[in-house]
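S., here's the first fold you wanted:
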Amino acid sequence: MSALEVRGLSKAYGGVQAVKDVSFALEASEVVALIGPNGAGKTTCFNLLNGQLVPDAGKILVGKASVAGLPPHRIARFGVGRTFQITQTFGSMSVRENVQVALLSYHHGFGSLLSAAPKLHLDEAHELLERVGMGSQAERPCAVLAYGDLKRVELAAALAGRPRVLLMDEPTAGMAPEERSALMQLAAEVALSDRIAVLFTEHDMGVVFGHAARVIVLHQGEIIASGTPDAVRADPRVREVYLGDA
């Protein structure tokens, strides 16, 4: 059974077909890149997968659970986590507190945020921060962190929900070249150890071909190629519409 299975997913805005009959599957521990030119439908696809948009047609299965059309908080409960191109952290809160908020949401829902929140899940928060290399910065406000460190905090917060599937939207955007490889290597290690299926979008082809086990290419809302990085890089249509001579 796949960690994530997408069947015939479609979404239109007026007469524009943003996603058209998209089907693919992700296995546990697999790291897969979803690439394509601007406007290809990558963000729409992500927003359908985590419930920010409702599909016009198609199925989304997380394990055996059908989640298409459910709101984001319910899809998260079935095991779909997400990180964003622009980091979603609370700048006025510490690194630790940001992860505690994610843990509170996972364990209790937000009803407990006004009670004993600062004392809850301390050990689990520190464990997650150690995993992503941020344990020593647990008490620093997120507002003062370097961008690459914010990406690690966001990853820790996503892992707090114990996802089966992790959607990473341009995870290395805005990062220095040396930080990009380190973050993706960390994501791959977590995927393997926790059996998480990772789907990521990315414009840096060095990151894509260096870290994805499989690549899916979208163009005008449709999948035009899917396979190993070498096979996709050599595909004539992919080279025509996106890669060029890269």
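And the second, which I think is the more interesting of the pair:
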Amino acid sequence: MTYPIAMIPYANMAPFKEMGPPEGCNLVDCLPRNSIQALIEKRVWAAAVPVGGLASLKEETEFIGRFGIAVQEQAMSVLFFSDHPFEQFGPPLTIGLTGESASSVRLLYLLLGYQNGFDNPPSLAVKGTPSNGYLVIGDHALRWAQEFERSGTVRGFSHVTDLAVLWHNRFQLPFVFARWVVRVDAPEAAKSALHAWLHRFAREEERLILKAAPKVADRLQLPTAYAERYLKVIRRCLSREDEAGQARFLDELHKHGRRTLFPGADGGENQTVKEDLVQ
């Protein structure tokens, strides 16, 4: 018997994957947003869960030390592409959102709210129609960023904004996108194996980054130096400062969050958030 552990299938997690699974466990590819439901349904025992969705897990999980996905300032893979500069972005312009993330969508909501007011968000574009801006994360964001660097435009968008940079500019704090958690009722053998695996990672992170970078570059068709720089930007072993950034994000979400983050362009509510995710 092996214990399933969710693994985000993005480049930012590649150094973890270089170690193979924890002893007695198997790694299951799971998009960030989907990992929340997978834990609730006990399809996995542990995951790097989006911070924006931690509240929905309530007492069901616990942190495994200070491990996750964070950035001091630039994220490089949480990007908002748009046909207007971000500081000019608001209604009646429309947006498209990745369906893969819980934290990044909420971060975009907060940043636009600080700028335009939380009662005046841009609308979601009707599905299948062009939008004025699009939130992209993970490997897709890295590919789009490379195309943007080469040509100055991508998919018709002439501006790109790294959301973590705007967060840092406002609060002078890092941004934490995900935290490693384990179900409180997980078998002790799984908890022990995961604990040992993550602490081994902390000792070997630099070597694992260098080992993962060429593979990431080859898979995403990126320059190796670019892939290595990106992998080094990500903080997987977190600090007290990272925890302060996480706490500030959750406080801001509690203060400003609401059931519907972005209204539908047709007046509907096609981007809803369960209330327990914003309380």
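Why I say that: The domain at 3-70+175-237 is CATH 3.40.190.10 (D-Maltodextrin-Binding Protein; domain 2). The first strand starts at residue 3 and ends at 7.

Talk tomorrow,
H.
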